[in-house]
Amino acid sequence: MQMTQISFFSKWLVRFTPIVLVLLLFGCETTQRMPTHSVEYQDHQQKLSALTHFRITGKLGYIDPTQRQSLNFHWKQSPEKSELRLSTFLGKTVLNLVIDDEGAKVTDIDGNRYFDKDADLLFYQLTSMRLPIVYMQDWIKGQPTAADNFQVADNGTLLSLQQTRGEQTWLMDYKGYQENEDVILPNRMTLSREPIKLNIAVSKWEIQ
């Protein structure tokens, strides 16, 4: 690691099929408040897809049964790579993560360098924090990349998304948004998977 998937029944079916269909349709509506083909949703996602260069600063609060971590984060995104820097409230960098086509590279607080093809695994091995780092590149903008289910608000932004990988189900709740250069972007989110919770508070978006 270190650098180096019968007639009675027929009558019953005819009688109750309309009711079943209504219940199914109602269930679909409660799962997703707005159709994903709505103009608002499509327009919003187009804006997010065009957002390929940006910087984010904010705070992270990570909680699991064994630890609680509060850190500042600085995220820089470009088409070529993603960069995540974590620092203490005093400004000392504790970890710098770079993800590109080759894989993930990390420099820790002591200057040691590490590499792995799996960014999620490398991040966990060095921080003991289990997070879907790769997908968060889009989720933090409000794009439901690789999500199994998601809910959409009236203005086309995401209310929540859910993704299951194996036996792990991640849920991202979008609790607040801000407008930046005609793009509505998340500023308060909670990412969770029992018993893990990550609170994300964005203090500044910079669109380049």
Automatic annotation (TrEMBL):
It is a lipid-anchor. The keyword Membrane applies. It comes from the Bacteria. One of its GO terms (cellular component) is cell outer membrane. InterPro entries: LolA/LolB/LppX, OM_lipoprot_LolB. Keywords: Cell outer membrane, Chaperone, Lipoprotein, Membrane, Palmitate, Protein transport, Signal, Transport. It is found in: Cell outer membrane. GO terms for biological process: lipoprotein localization to outer membrane; protein transport. Gene3D superfamilies: Lipoprotein localisation LolA/LolB/LppX (2.50.20.10). Monomer. Plays a critical role in the incorporation of lipoproteins in the outer membrane after they are released by the LolA protein. Belongs to the LolB family. This is Outer-membrane lipoprotein LolB. It comes from Vibrio breoganii.
